[in-house]
């Protein structure tokens, strides 16, 4: 059984309020015994980090990435980590090491936990979720003009839909056109699970140039491994469990003009909401603090009000 512990990884010297919200929601709603923020930099001067240390079920743990990786997989992964510069790429490796050593559920910091994950932890040794996307990793291995044309057509349709204030409902009517493929923003694993070591070996086997490409060590690596390995105890949950709004459409978590209600975005199966910090939200996120969450009428603000205690909303 996957342990009742949650893990977050943060690489950087600033700690935005939405990071705090992610950890606090996991502690309050996820059904975990312990939630750990593993961070590489000194965050003690950050007010949101200080507020996090006051939550009884949360542990903040400063880590040395090299030691973390070496203890889990050996020095080869340390060398790969040092060749990377993007925090997101480095985080892809650290989450594997932390899960291999400790087990539990890894969550990205652009998430909000809305329900307990106990049943998901009990049913398998490894799980992740899928998202509906236009360009799956398998496209990189084909030269079929038809396949690429279909992907670009899906991307164009999604862009057209996301511009509308009715995008959430409109995308539901066409979502079957978009294949569901794995994403690594939420991962659950038993300690020392063989699939984690398979992902490590595949990361090391990537050509040096390919390893530096965006998503290469994250979703692309995961999707290929799942496609090529026997699925004995590997569970990939449907999109509404962790990714109820897909990339691009996810900007409607932040848009004040969206016509969707929270009930339109979630389903009874939703456990975690991944809101995609890397997709059209970078300019919005820094301004999204506790005060904004309390007064805003956006879907994300309503989601936070429902899933964080008043104490956390005041942090």
Describe the fold and architecture.
Helix 5 packs antiparallel against helix 9. The longest helix is centred in the middle third of the chain and has 18 residues. The chain is globular, with a radius of gyration of 19 Å. It has a single domain, classed as Spore Coat Polysaccharide Biosynthesis Protein SpsA, Chain A (Alpha-Beta Complex). It has 16 helices and 9 strands. The chain has a 7-stranded mixed sheet with strand order 3-2-1-4-7-6-8, with helices on both faces. Strand 1, helix 1 and strand 2 form a beta-alpha-beta unit.
Characterize the main sheet: 7 strands, mixed
Shape-level CATH architecture? Alpha-Beta Complex
Fill in the CATH topology.
Answer: Spore Coat Polysaccharide Biosynthesis Protein SpsA, Chain A
Strand composition percent: 15-25%
How many domains make up the 3D coordinates?
1
Structural class: alpha/beta
Give the strand line-up of the largest sheet. 3-2-1-4-7-6-8
Helix content: 40-55%
User: What spatial form do the alpha-carbon principal axes imply?
Assistant: globular
SSE run: EHEHEHHHEEHEHHEHHHEHHEHHH
Could you tell me the mean pLDDT? 93
CATH class identity = Alpha Beta
Number of helices, where a helix is a run of at least 4 consecutive DSSP H or I residues: 16
- Beginning-to-end CA distance, first to last residue: 34 Å
Radius of gyration: 19 Å
Low-confidence stretches: none
* Strands, total number: 9
């Amino acid at each position: 059984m996957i342990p009742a512990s949650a893990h977050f990884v943060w690489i950087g010297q600033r700690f935005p309020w939405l990071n705090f919200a992610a950890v606090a929601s996991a502690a309050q709603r996820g059904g975990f015994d312990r939630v750990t923020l593993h961070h590489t930099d000194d965050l003690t001067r950050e007010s949101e980090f200080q507020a996090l240390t006051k939550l009884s079920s949360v542990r903040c743990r400063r880590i040395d990435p090299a030691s973390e990786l070496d203890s889990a997989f050996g020095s080869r992964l340390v060398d790969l980590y040092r060749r990377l510069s993007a925090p997101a790429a480095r985080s892809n490796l650290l989450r594997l090491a932390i899960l291999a050593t400790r087990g539990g559920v890894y969550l990205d910091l652009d998430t909000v936990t809305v329900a307990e994950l106990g049943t998901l932890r009990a049913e398998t040794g490894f799980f992740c979720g899928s998202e509906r996307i236009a360009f799956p990793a398998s496209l990189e291995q084909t030269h079929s003009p038809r396949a690429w044309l279909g992907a670009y057509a899906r991307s164009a349709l999604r862009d057209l839909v996301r511009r509308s204030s009715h995008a959430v409902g409109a995308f539901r009517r066409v979502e079957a056109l978009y294949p569901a493929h794995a994403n690594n923003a939420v991962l659950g694993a038993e300690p020392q699970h063989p699939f984690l070591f398979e992902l490590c070996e595949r990361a090391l086997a990537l050509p040096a140039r390919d390893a530096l490409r965006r998503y290469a060590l994250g979703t692309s690596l995961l999707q290929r491994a799942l496609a090529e390995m026997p699925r004995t105890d590997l569970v990939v949950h449907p999109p509404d469990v962790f990714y109820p709004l897909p990339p691009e459409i996810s900007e409607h978590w932040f848009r004040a003009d969206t016509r969707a209600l929270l009930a339109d975005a979630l389903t009874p199966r939703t456990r975690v909401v991944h809101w995609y910090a890397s997709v059209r939200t970078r300019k919005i996120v820094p301004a999204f603090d506790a005060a904004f969450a309390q007064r805003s009428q956006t879907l994300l603000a309503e989601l936070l009000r429902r899933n964080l205690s008043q104490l956390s909303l005041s942090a």
